[in-house]
Amino acid sequence: MSAASCQPLAVPDLAGRHPLAQVHPPATPPPHPPPPNNQPALRQTTPPNPLRSSADTRAREQALAQSRRSISLSAAGIAACAVAMYGVIQLDPFGLEKLEPTTTTNNNDNNDSKNKTMLDGPPGFPDTSASSPAMILQGPDGSTQVETGTSSVPHFPSTMRLPTRSSTLQPGDALPASGDDGASEEYQLLGLGIRTVSFLRIQVYVVGLYIATKDLPELQQRLVRTAVNPPKEVDSPAVVQPTTGAGSVAFATSLVPGEREALKKLLLDEERGDAAWSAVLREGGLRMAWRVVPTRNTDFLHLRDGWVRGLAARAQRYTISPLPDTSSLSSGGRKEGEFTDESFGRAVGEFKALFGGGGGGGKKGVSKGQTLVLVRGEDGALEGLVQAEVGKPGMRFLGRVRDERISRLVWLNYLAGKNVSSEGARRSVVDGVMGVVERPVGTI
């Protein structure tokens, strides 16, 4: 038996395939090359984020820039309008302030004076310049009135009568209507003006300075002596010599035109005016009064705060740079520490209390057109009076501050320095006192 016959026989499997047969995988077609793709492969997209979109970002930036430009242009327009309004008010291109006021005729017993303007005050007042728009009118009660320049409070009386001071009066006491009964004193108007605030010139009140008619000669003498011996330098130890008493300057009977002009410049000077007015006021003996009439409804506290702020600022300024001592017992040296002692602080407290709680009457409001009067007595004490009711006679006593420094500082707040409460009132008062010194001393 051969070797071939000895090999085992191949038995086909159950599928019928021979075990020795070679198994080949089924033939697959050759792969085809992919078609050329000139576009990016497509993928699933999501809605774009507006915050990440460059186009939307540019649009937002442009809108923001446009908004900023609009805000800038609006702000510039507002500022330009404000500046233009202020410029028109200051420059007065239409010349409204330069219009000469007309005067009305006054009837009196003398037929020759029918067309003559009545001058109840000293010569030279009222002044028809731009700084003093005063005009004499005939009042309903026969008294003369002066135009104020505002329709809210159109007129001030050229004269008024105030009750004589009584030490028995208490805050809140009613005062009868003043008349020519020996219990009142006549005061003459020296000048008036309007108190305004902010660059828009919002009117607060009309204020006028009055002086007792009997004290006009004394005011005349003090002004003449101040003109003859004006302050030389603010820092000089003897700025102004006393105007009364021992050591006063030589008596002068009148002023020549050059001296009158020099006195006017002195009283309006921002630096030396303080010393000049202080010399006139410090000695006492001049009964004067500020008449204050609000142009709108206000209250005592609002008016008081304005006066206290000016009073405190001026006292602080004089503490740093004291005014000269022009009292009759002084040689003209500087009065150091005049406003730093405790008594002055107490006097300021009394001044505040004078208008606190409705000024002693419980009524805190001050109506439009209601008259408030600050009276400086012969000894320099300050008294407050308020009209009981608008349009009706009779006044109410507010109180009294005996310290002369308080009334003097309140007066200087209107008359002297760089910043005064009413520039129109200051210039009008100076014009009024120029009419006083035009006459020879003793002829008033």
UniProtKB/TrEMBL annotation:
Residues 43-54, 141-153 have a biased composition (Polar residues). The chain crosses the membrane at residues 70-89. Residues 185-430 form the Chalcone isomerase domain. GO terms for molecular function: intramolecular lyase activity. Residues 26-38 have a biased composition (Pro residues). Coiled coil: none annotated. Pfam families: Chalcone_2. Residues 1-63, 100-179 are annotated as: Disordered. It comes from the Eukaryota. The keyword Transmembrane applies. Keywords: Membrane, Transmembrane, Transmembrane helix. This is Chalcone isomerase domain-containing protein. It comes from Aspergillus campestris (strain IBT 28561).
